[in-house]
Specification:
- The complex is a heterodimer of chains A (about 375) and B (about 300).
- With about 375 residues, chain A is an alpha+beta fold.
- Chain A has eight helices and 16 strands.
- In chain A, the strands form three sheets. In chain A, strands 7, 8, 9, 10, 11, 12, 13, 14, 15 and 16 form a ten-stranded mixed sheet that branches. A three-stranded mixed sheet of chain A has the order 1-5-6. In chain A, strands 2-3-4 form a three-stranded antiparallel sheet.
- The longest helix of chain A has 25 residues.
- Chain A is flat.
- Chain A starts with a strand and ends with a helix.
- Chain B has a five-stranded mixed sheet with strand order 1-2-3-4-9, sandwiched between helices.
- In chain B, helix 3 links the parallel strand 2 and strand 3.
- Classes of the chains: A alpha+beta (about 375), B alpha/beta (about 300).
- At the A-B interface, strand 10, strand 11, helix 6, helix 7 and helix 8 of A face helix 1, helix 8 and strand 8 of B.
- Strand 11 of chain A pairs antiparallel with strand 8 of chain B.
């Protein structure tokens, strides 16, 4: 088991823990009310920020740290479990490989596992939470409110407690796609003369060749989170991307990536091609129909950034199935699959069916 | 899936049970008054066409057929002038109820000899007679009418001239009534002009203001089927709103200023012209139907059929 380096940000006034506040984009103290900008924190705690500037702990593909012997099944738990010591209460807390920011289970102080954000795991940029927890809960309640057949327990206080602010690791790619498109465009017009309808069709050779630059296509580097869910809460406003500082993570959970950029490239390519295709098709206009002869998209260059994006996240297990719900922590856009209480819906539909049957019976009774 | 099918099976079973219970439980009052004897069955000659002995002879025949068919029978050679067909029907229905009682089994046949240029004969049916003659009533009254002289003939030659023809018509009527009085000719139910239903249930004749059980069950099953379909549609459409929403369009990551074409051509190749002949279709027509008539206001349930001469 690995004993990890941790980093905490204490209030310079009262020494209580500082947490990142979405509304002010500053770190604030819940006890004395002190508030500090990210820059101020960087200056005050320069030594802590330096922790992540050290060399990375190189890892093998199976997640073990280099130099360690390969592990048996029995040893897997030990090798994938990390220990940290809470500097507030001294408790030794276990966490998994991916977690980089969390809370002490005993004193609930925010802890950043700085040792896991070193080297290749150090994000280039981050967008801080802008949507506070209360707003995320409000959005969630509104979302649930429109659906009558969500199980009551999904909206319970106990469930709302599970709403977690999580910095999700993302690979952000700028792709330069070479597009090659050839087709036959047809323009038709028709008119009637005598007892005949005439149709004139003009054909054009349509050629489009060029480069299409897509900026900031994201793909989450987190295997535990559903890719579709993350794609559904996009887009993020990249104008608010800031150089990474661990202080953004204080008071939230954060994971480091466990899916590398090579593994997400297929997803990026697919989305870049779709985006390029759309742009290209937008330029093929004025035709009644187009037959495509050739259509090819090839990514010539990709620039990568490893970033942390804010997501309010919640999971719910119902009827043996896991339901995930997410709110974009920057824009408030939400997505998820609502669980359906089939039993309640069945009763409701039975009621409607019975009402329809009763109305028909009464009307039928009135008729001869 | 198995759970859903189980729920579906339970709903269908419950629906069938409800239909059965609603149709059969709590049955309403039966107004059927049946048939007592032939004492009131008669032929009445208001126009004095026949001699007393001839009337007695016809009366005897009427009572025989009444006993045999277990139906009250009243035949009248009518001299009263009615303004319209409806008045004739009201007279026949009311007269039957007055003579034999409401919802008894029998019939009232009025032959119109009032001298109108367009005579109207009418057969009023009550109780079991409604079931027996539902399908044949129009035939009976029309074919009997064919045996009777036209009003123009009567006006020209006098009623006496057609005495034998009228006697033959009465014989024919009674024969036809006898031949159609077999229980096999009964229809399953009849809805009378005052909203009563006449039907058999367990061999017994019922006259009620409520629909017969099989009809109630049929309506409820149709209602349940419609309700089931509506319920399924609501279930399906509601369920479809509990799906995951679509992904974000990746087009948001491309700015128009980042699209650079080095070849962008739309070069004209050729022109085709085709020609098709236009077929002319003739327009369709539409003819609408007419309206319906009014209802009676008696308490005894009757059906009937009329014939113009």
């Amino acid at each position: 088991m690995i004993l990890l380096e941790t980093a905490q940000y204490n209030c310079p006034n009262c020494n209580a823990r500082l947490k990142f506040t979405p509304e002010t984009q500053e770190l604030s103290c819940e006890y004395c009310g002190g508030s500090f900008t990210i820059e101020e924190i960087k200056n005050l705690f320069a030594d802590r920020e330096d922790i992540i500037n050290g060399p990375a702990d190189s890892e093998n593909s199976d997640g073990t740290v280099s130099g360690e012997p390969s592990v048996s099944v029995e040893e897997e738990f030990e090798n994938h479990t990390n220990l940290y010591q809470c500097s507030s209460c001294g408790a030794e807390i276990m966490c998994d490989d991916e977690q980089t920011a969390l809370f002490c289970y005993y004193c609930h102080n925010p802890v950043i596992l700085a040792g896991k954000l070193k080297g290749k795991y150090k994000p280039d940029k981050v967008i801080g939470f802008k949507v506070p927890r209360e707003r995320a809960l409000e959005l969630f309640k509104n979302w649930c409110g429109r659906r009558r057949f969500i199980p009551a327990s999904f909206k319970s206080e106990q469930q709302l407690e599970k709403m977690t602010g999580l910095y999700v690791p993302f690979w952000m790619a700028n792709t330069l796609t070479q597009a090659d498109y050839e087709g036959i465009g047809r323009q038709s017009r028709s008119w009637v003369s005598g007892s005949y309808r005439y149709t004139e069709t003009k054909e054009y050779d349509v050629v489009r060749r060029g480069n299409i630059l897509a900026r900031g296509i994201p793909a989450d580097g987190e295997s535990k989170i559903d890719d579709e869910l993350m794609e559904a809460i996009e887009p993020f406003d990249y104008s608010e991307l800031r150089p990474f500082s661990m202080s953004y993570l204080s008071g939230f959970f954060a994971d480091k990536y466990d899916v590398g950029k090579n593994e997400v490239f297929e997803r990026i390519r697919d989305r870049a091609n779709k985006a390029s295709r759309k742009e290209l098709k937008d330029t093929v206009t004025g035709y009644n129909s187009v037959s495509v002869r050739q259509e090819r998209y090839e990514i010539k260059n990709t620039e990568w950034n490893y970033i942390m994006l804010p997501v309010w996240f919640m999971t719910y297990r119902y009827d043996g199935k896991l339901y995930e719900f997410a709110v974009n922590g920057q824009t408030g856009k939400l997505a998820g699959t609502p669980p359906l209480d089939k039993s309640r819906l069945t009763w409701f539909c039975t009621g409607i069916g019975a009402a329809v049957a009763a109305v028909i019976y009464v009307l039928g009774g009135l008729m001869g | 899936m198995i759970k859903s099918l189980g729920r579906l099976a339970a709903i269908i079973a419950a629906a069938l049970l409800v239909a059965f219970l609603v149709a059969n439980v709590g049955y309403p009052k039966n107004y059927a008054a049946g048939y007592t004897d032939n004492s009131k069955s008669a032929f009445v000659d208001e126009r004095g066409i026949f001699s007393q002995s001839e009337v007695d002879e016809i009366n005897k025949r009427v009572k025989e057929v009444s006993s045999m068919t277990k139906l009250n029978i009243y035949i009248i050679a009518n001299s009263k002038f009615f303004n319209d067909d409806w008045a004739t029907e009201v007279y026949a229905d009311d007269s039957y109820d007055r003579i034999f009682g409401e919802d008894t089994d029998g019939l009232f046949y009025t032959m119109d000899f009032a001298g109108k240029s367009d005579s109207y004969d009418y057969l009023s049916l009550s109780g079991r007679a409604c079931l027996l003659f539902e399908n044949s009533k129009q035939f009976i009254v029309s074919s009997t009418g064919d045996h009777l002289p036209y009003s123009s003939e009567i006006n020209a030659n006098g009623l006496e001239t057609y005495k034998d023809k009228i006697a033959d018509a009465i014989d024919y009527f009674l024969d036809t009534i006898s031949s159609y009085s077999d229980g096999n000719n009964e229809v399953s139910y009849v809805h009378t002009n005052v909203g009563k239903y006449i039907f058999r249930r367990g061999g017994e004749l019922y006259v009620t203001y409520s629909k017969p059980p099989f009809l109630r069950m049929k309506i409820l099953l149709i209602g349940e089927l419609a309700g089931f379909i509506v319920g399924l549609i609501v279930y399906g459409s509601t369920k479809s709103t509990y799906k995951f929403k679509s992904r974000t369009d990746p087009g948001v990551y491309v700015d128009k200023s980042d699209v650079h074409f080095y070849t962008r051509t739309d070069a004209f190749l050729r022109t085709h012209t085709s020609r098709t002949s236009i077929s002319s279709d003739s327009g369709g027509g539409y003819r609408g139907g007419g309206g319906g008539g009014g209802g009676h206001s008696f308490s005894g349930g009757h059906t009937g059929a009329g014939h113009h001469r």
